[in-house]
Amino acid sequence: MTQTDSTNQRFHDITSTPMNFTIHAPGRVNLLGEHTDYNGLPVLPMAIQKTITLEGAERNDRHIRAWALDVSPDPVEFDLEPTIPKHPQGHWINYVKAGIQGILDSLSLEEQKNLHGCDIVISGTIPLGVGLSSSSALVTGSALAFLETNRLPINRVPLAERMAAAEHYVGTRGGGMDQATCLLGQKGHALKIDFFPLRANPVPLPDSTTIVVCDSRVRAKKTENALRLYNLRAVECRFAAMLLRAFLQSKDIPSDFQRLGDLFNSPWNYTYEDLIRLIAEGIQDMYSYQEICDQLVDEDEIRCILTDYSFENEREFSSMRFACGKRFRHIVTDGMRVEQSAKILHEGNAAEFGRLMNQGQVSARDDFEISCPELDRLVELALEYGTLGARLTGAGFGGCTVNLVERTKADAFVQHMRQAYYPDSDPSDESIFTSEPGPGAVIKRHEV
Ligand code: GLA
Fold first, then answer.
1. How far apart are CA 31 and CA 338, in angstroms?
2. Is the backbone of residue 35 left (phi > 0), alpha (psi -120 to 50) or beta?
């Protein structure tokens, strides 16, 4: 029996139907530009070679059955309807539902009537909950499975934009980097992604280097505390934008921008240097809740923003503090580092790119304050063992670091890091691994 036969057989044993398609949706690491995406500034991620795999079969009815065999031998089932009810927060099926709901929302009720459901068997190699975007891979992979089932066209750029919004269904409010990387990744390349509107351009990584990912083993699940911390950063950036608007207004400069990134466009056409100066002049490093209310006048809007990001306790508001100036300093300098990196990488300058990554780590640690002692320790060790650049990757508060390492030194680097940070691990332990930039989601149709 060939491997394909045995995979088909396994699928048939689970679902009692033949398999029609397989989707491999990759995870990602971000090389530079952290928390910049939702502020409209660029990022520099790459798809990794670890994927979530969704094997699927079309059904003749409007029912969905999904198996996550690592979790349970039984499927979770639901029907297609204009608004699919959610499972309790944190349940894996919500990620599948999010992807499908995202597609439904793009269609009229009339168009939705003709859609079919599917059976999906989910497995994968992306470690879960370590900040490598297994959740976005599942959301995006589920949307692709649903499109494939219904033979609907797959336009990757608009789909990536749609998936960023679709993931809000599960209660997180990320930007668009993860879904875009999952769909638009290119073998051998990082992507420079700009937002609003989404544009992704491949950036070659030097042949002489490879990427090593190290798990801090601090779990930064986007639930409870980590979700609150992520949301607090997003709130601080919203307030920082409002403060900047008030500052521009006081100088009779047009101030009707939404996100910081809009200021690169007409009528402002600001440069990064302009933004750094404006932020230094117009926004303090730290504000109390009362100061925010005094400066921004409309207390109702402020309360609305806080509740929108799940800060619900009125009494809690008065003790909150917002590091608006520092946060925007990180966003602007990291955006600038992404621009510089894209240029430098086209020239093949690995050492300079490494230096920018190191600066990105300092900025994420000191200005955006999303590092933690374990991530700092991994970075410190990596620098000691000869990485060209090391920094945390993704949302922060735990999760992984990403390291740019000369290919010829990669084995020794991994060995040293293993001994120093994971002394009890055996060689099969995947807390540290090397990855080349992989392709975006791959869809294979099987003729039955
Ligand atoms: C998470 C979000 C992304 C991005 C990163 C931080 O991964 O899903 O959109 O904001 O954090 O760069």
1. 9
2. left
Q: Which two tokens stand for residue 351?
A: 């050492």
- Active-site option among 79, 105, 119, 178: 178
Nearest Cα residue to 233 out of 448, 36, 26, 374: 36
Instruction: Kindly report, residue by residue over 188-215, the tens digit of the pLDDT.
Output: 999 999 999 999 999 999 999 999 999 9
Whole-structure pTM value? 0.96
Nearest CA to ligand 1 atom 9: 175
Q: Tell me, what's the pLDDT at 44? A: 99
User: Measured between alpha carbons, how far is 85 from 109 in angstroms, rounded to an integer?
Assistant: 17
CA of 332 to the centre of ligand 1 (A): 16
Ligand 1 atom 10 nearest Cα: 35
- The pair of structure tokens assigned to 39 is 């502020």
Closest CA to 180 of 21, 357, 30, 345: 30
Residue 383's alpha-carbon distances to 115, 202, 355, 398, 404, in angstroms, are 53, 27, 11, 19, 10
Backbone dihedral angles phi then psi of residue 415, each to the nearest 5 degrees:
-60, -45
SS3 category, 9:
helix
Residue 172 has pLDDT above 90, yes or no: no
Is 196 touching ligand 1 by the criterion CB < 6 Å? no
**Residue from 38, 126, 133, 177 to probe ligand 1 pocket by mutation (most atoms less than 8 Å from CB):** 177
Mean pLDDT computed over 36-57: 98
pLDDT at res. 224:
61
207 catalytically annotated = no
Q: How many CB atoms lie within 10 A of CB 347?
A: 10
CB 118 within 8 A of CB 23: no
Residues 6+ apart with CB under 8 A from 81: none
Nearest atom (ligand 1) to Cα of 35: 12
